[in-house]
């Protein structure tokens, strides 16, 4: 097999500038080996403050009870479960990028996979807080674990999708963490080997698990990635599928609909990629990584966004259509009175969702807009606002008027501590992300290097490459044929 | 490299078998018209139209999936497909032909008032059934007919355009800038097809053609389920033709690496189909609402019970076990076997969508259903062969061809 790397000249480079192997290491490890910038410190402080506020909000809820929130008998799930689903959704892009795109051999994943996986892990941690504290008596949270116990015949309800959630999300979290960490090993070893400070050498030395970079290590590394990718691929689908079951197994109008599983998955990938865009656009600027997270990366992710946004759009329209087509008056009420009617109490949220998730992402059909940073950043935030609306629409508009008009709820708006809890998860998320950006290589060094000679700008402009490009098919095949 | 021919000539054997099988199909159709279609017996009549509906819609959507595959990979900027993309193009040339056949069947059902197929067309039912009456804004003959024509026309026109653009990569080499522009043109037309596909196959068309058979019943998943079913069968058909052409000494740049990837598609989308099948089934089973469970009740119990489970064995268990190992996806025999099982399995899946609600307890897979399917297979052999012979087998100046040549999984 020839060692010449080839990629068509029509593809833009995935590593700009004139990088070589050494320069890549230098660029990516710079934040770790230097003291953090002022911007980092300010950002980190804000994140920690938010986190503290969140902790206090949760303290209120745990101490004084669930009454600190404005959820009520009719709207038993409110902001908390909305936020739970929202965060879990965001946690989907990372594993999709690291697993499915690895199986698809997509070179561009190497620029963003590390940060996206980190984002996934932090998002899932944030998500997990909501159902746990929604239990009210959080000290009983271990009751969700099925094990033989002294509580008599009291087992968890295996037929409940809420329990399936426990399994699905904890599995997802475990595998994502393993995937992320195993990918970090070679990079930790690089930091260790370059370290001039003693504690750094020791810290990253322990973290690198004795990685030496031997052929055997790489061999195992490669096969482990493939195994984990194979395990994660169904997990990308299963997590949000099971979250959708929380709703769809019920008989509540607006919740019980068969399209929910794939539609939730598409929506999750949609919001996850939007969050990756938001984070990456800031990160590449702050850490000066524009030559690794290039416009090619941004554009390709915008393509995923327009695809998944349109899939979600088809699902919304399908639901709306079926609510009428079914001629079921309750479905009709949920969709045409509680949702699509702009002048109903929560009509604003439905149309906010439609505008943010279906209509506005359509601008990404145009290449110019896909490659515009300002537009991309604005859209990525807008989409996550829209995806929050989606979960709010599903939960609140289906619940606030149940079958019994005497228990219809008054207008639901969250209490300070409900909002505080949500803000607190932002604090948690960004605290983690800032720490990650400081102490961990935000781009997978070893993996980026693996595409350098194929997709790096410097190598794409080599004489040899032009030669290959201009070769006739016969000459080309001769060069690449097995000897 | 050994010498190879970039043109396909339909062999006498290919033509012979195509003609024989098509002949069997035509004879079956004629016999069907005489024995079933014009029979006084309502069951026989229903069977005639149900069999035609199942076959014509299934095979149309399968060949259309080839164009979907092309457009999706074009938009995804895939390089690996180029060495065999003409195979998918040749399969997609059947869309207009199968489209017309399906149109004839569907329009005949509508205009000759086959109310055992679409009982929402029955005027008496309409007046007395509040639910059907309520749906009549959608389930109406004019809307059905117009949308059917629009859909088939859309697939035909956008597909033909894609094939036409593809031919521009045959004769003259492109420099990088021209190539970029040309790929852009490709992606514009591919997205037109995809949008059309999303508004038809992934939503409205299965509601009209298949779901409306159970006029009271509804499932939001239905169209995506139908899509998954026909897409995986479409991939299987592409795999079969790649193996056939390789065995004939064609497609020099398509290697086991490419077949491996097609095998992955067959494997992955068989699981995806199962995922959609399970999601639809489980949610309906779990909620246990009579209006919804009736769809599965008739399929899970009684006459169709065996086929109901066979469907899962053929379309999930078999491809799952057969194609799981990497080497299996590179083995001509295993992939061929899996592809045949998948194509037959999803044909059966379509039978289960059509027959139980139309034929009730009188359904059976017999000479008519199989005969018509054989006819379709014959047409595929004849027409894909013709499609392949009409253009070079590899677009030699496609800007991504070299990537495809060195592709390895």
TrEMBL record, chain A:
This is Polysulfide reductase NrfD. It is a multi-pass membrane protein. The keyword Magnesium does not apply. It comes from Polluticaenibacter yanchengensis. The chain crosses the membrane at residues 39-59, 84-104, 116-142, 162-184, 224-243, 263-283, 304-326, 346-365, 377-400, 420-446. Keywords: Cell membrane, Membrane, Transmembrane, Transmembrane helix. Pfam families: NrfD (PF03916). It is found in: Cell membrane. It comes from the Bacteria. Belongs to the NrfD family. Its main location: membrane.
From TrEMBL, chain B:
It comes from the Bacteria. The chain crosses the membrane at residues 20-38, 58-78, 90-111, 143-160, 190-210, 222-244, 265-287, 307-324, 331-353, 365-384. Keywords: Membrane, Transmembrane, Transmembrane helix. This is Quinol:cytochrome C oxidoreductase. It comes from Polluticaenibacter yanchengensis. The lineage of its organism: Bacteria, Pseudomonadati, Bacteroidota, Chitinophagia, Chitinophagales.
